[in-house]
Amino acid sequence: MKSTLDTNRPIYLQIKESIEDDILNGRLKPEDQIPSNSQLVSYYKINPVTVLKGINLLVDEGIIYKKRGLGMFVSAHAPEKLKKHFLQSFFQEQIEPLIALAKPLGFTLKEIHEMIDSGWKGEKND
Fold it and tell me: Where is the signal peptide, in residue numbers (predicted)?
């Protein structure tokens, strides 16, 4: 879980994203129980309705599910679902704008690959 919340963004989304991050980074594994609503309310000192709103988004997306009387648990396919969602978002938010900028400037695919390879290795591209 994040230790603090950003006051400039909706808190319920940050709760959702914090749980997603814990799943993607292996801190929560499939079939693990997530922190209870009351634990999240107490930890962040926020309204229970706010926590519930973030949790319900994850339930609606099939990332977590409720075991009656026990709490909320990570779905078996949650990591794969989240990775697929983030890959789609990454493509739309990062790759498509990169292509839209690079093509008119005349960059070749090979040049783009070389720049990405260089950046991946931590090298500066001069």
Answer: none
